[in-house]
Design a protein that fits this description.
It contains 30 helices and no strands. By secondary structure, it is an all-alpha fold. Helix 7 crosses helix 8. The chain is elongated and about 105 Å long.
């Protein structure tokens, strides 16, 4: 009997369209030792593997005993897995997947990984599916880099119908990618899934948003949330918390709280309204006006944002498009519906008029705003200060700056610098300097542009001492003077024949690698010639030529 078994185990008959038999006492022989040559052979192998998996408890050993000599192909692996695609056979499919992988170190293709993942997810073996997904993504990323994300996703989509899978597989895929910090392409992947008719769950969006927020990818965070709203997925409490945390990290939460205070006249108590306002405002501010309005309409229909906020954002959108008339129509319609005006909208109109240099109209809106009981805020005055400077209403710009300071407000650095530049060009340096002293006590933080404008103004007025005081104040506060500040100082010192101090500033500029303009060289050279110091004048001439040659190269 033992001898017969040995013979039987070694004996085999192979033919494409015949039924296999073995001359043994019901002992299962090993299969092919030669390469399969026909579709019938492959079908027979697949069928035999499935029968072995169904009949035996110790599947791994039985597979090894009966099929270790088979020359497996990806086609055999794929078709075997598809024969085991029903949830009841999921564990057997996983066993076969792992067994065939270790057999002669057979390298599974992405497609067979994905088929197995589909089978596991369909059977709700989610833990096993996650492990397999993670392993696949890491393996492919080693060879394909960023493309690995889409290679795997495309294969999952392609094999979805073959396995008659469930959309849960895409949630699992996106969650696994997020946890592996593969977030660069998640938004594009969301759009691909949307195009193929697959929608992700709120839980999956939350996982992606959480990981993105932790990675400081602000624009991607709001892009994914935008896609979520577009696909009519209502955010839950966890979603809103993640987005509020994102606003805090960006340093923008206070900005939107203040903005909603001005629209509502009180503190907004709904975090959902805050994050939705932020999303729509950001889209409009980025120039994506029509998209922002479409999203706003959807939010209003689903009571995700308040009507008065929606109207205010529509006014913003119309003004962004430069359509003042349409913006006024929206505002008047808002009043007719029973809503009050608000300081946010009035300031939008003031800013629009100032941008178009229509200062008289801006002042009229300010008066209407105050007559309606709304207080102007810092941004209101910033618009007026900048608008007045651009139309040469210099005294008025000073007046608005002084008025806002009386109200305990501080101008933005951008507005104050623009005013400083215009006023210092026109002989108001002393008044601006005095105003800066008051503002410093209120917490205003000047920059190099602020000081450079003042230094240039004092230099133009011939007040070199005050210009030098500002320079040393800059150095004391560790604000690095730019080339413009040094140029202004050098010109002033040359006019006062203080060439020893000019030389000191020249050395400082060279140490800091700041370039000296040929115009400034000319002034210094002229000053030395006036002093009859031809040697130094010639040295500076050669130096100027060398600088020009280096610049041209």
């Amino acid at each position: 009997m033992k001898q017969l078994s040995t013979v039987a185990k070694r004996f085999m008959i192979c033919h494409s369209f015949t039924k296999f038999q073995c001359f043994s006492m019901h002992i299962q022989p090993p299969f092919y030792t030669q390469k399969l040559s026909s579709l019938a052979d492959e079908c027979f192998i697949v069928d035999s593997i499935c029968k072995t998996l169904h009949k035996n408890q110790k599947n791994w050993d039985n597979l090894t005993n009966n099929f270790s000599s088979v020359k497996f192909t990806n086609s055999i692996i794929k078709n075997t897995l598809l024969h085991l695609k029903q949830p009841i056979n999921a564990k057997k499919a996983l066993t076969f997947f792992h067994w065939s992988a270790q057999l002669n170190h057979f390298p599974h293709e992405v497609s067979t990984y994905c088929i197995t993942i589909h089978i596991l997810v369909k059977a709700r073996y989610l833990k096993d599916a996650k492990v397999l997904l993670g392993s696949l993504l890491m393996r492919v990323s080693e060879n394909e880099g960023k493309d690995s994300f889409f290679i795997v996703l495309d294969s999952i989509i392609d094999s979805y119908g073959d396995v008659e899978s469930t959309p849960l597989v895409f949630d699992l895929f996106m969650q696994t990618c997020a946890k592996l910090r593969m977030i660069d392409c998640v938004l594009e992947a969301c759009k691909i899934l949307d195009e193929n008719g697959f929608m992700l769950s709120v839980v999956t969006y939350n996982v992606m948003l959480y990981v993105i927020q932790k990675s400081d990818r602000c624009s991607l965070l709001w892009g994914v949330y935008e896609h979520m709203i577009e696909n009519r997925k209502r955010p839950n409490e966890s979603t809103v918390k993640i987005l509020v945390d994102g606003l805090c990290k960006e340093g923008r939460l206070q900005k939107f709280l203040d903005m909603l205070d001005r629209i509502l006249g009180k503190r907004c108590s709904s975090p959902l309204v805050i994050v939705n306002t932020c999303l729509v405002y950001g889209m409009i501010d980025d120039g994506r006006i029509e998209e922002g309005l479409v999203l706003l309409k959807r939010m209003l229909q689903n009571h995700m944002i308040l009507d008065v906020i929606g109207c205010s954002l529509v006014v913003l959108a119309k003004l962004k498009k430069g359509d003042l008339e349409a913006a006024w129509e929206v505002f008047e319609g808002m009043l007719k519906r029973g809503f009050d005006g608000n300081s946010f909208v009035y300031t939008l109109f003031i800013g629009a008029y100032c941008d178009q240099r229509m200062i008289e109209d801006a002042v009229e809106v300010l008066e209407e705003m105050e007559n309606s009981g709304f207080k102007p805020f810092d941004e209101t005055f910033d618009c007026l200060i900048q608008g007045c400077c651009r139309t040469q209403w210099l005294e008025d710009s000073l007046k608005y700056c002084e008025r806002m300071m009386e109200m305990g407000l501080v101008p933005s650095r951008l507005a104050f610098n623009e005013m400083t530049n215009k006023l210092c060009e026109n002989g108001y340096s002393k008044r601006v300097d005095e105003m800066l002293t008051v503002l410093l006590d209120k917490g205003f933080v000047p920059d190099s542009i602020t000081y450079s404008c003042l230094i240039a103004g004092y230099g133009k007025e011939g007040n070199v001492e005050d210009a030098l005081k500002l320079y040393y104040e800059m150095e004391y506060k560790s604000i690095s003077p730019d080339a413009a500040a040094f140029n202004s100082l050098i010109v002033s010192l040359c006019h006062h024949k203080r060439l020893s101090e000019v030389e000191k500033f020249l050395m400082v500029m060279k140490d800091r690698q700041l370039r000296l303009d040929s115009f400034i060289y000319d002034i210094i050279i002229s000053s030395y010639l006036d002093k009859r110091d031809k040697i130094r004048a010639q040295e500076l001439c050669r130096e100027m030529v060398g600088v020009q040659v280096r610049a041209s190269n």
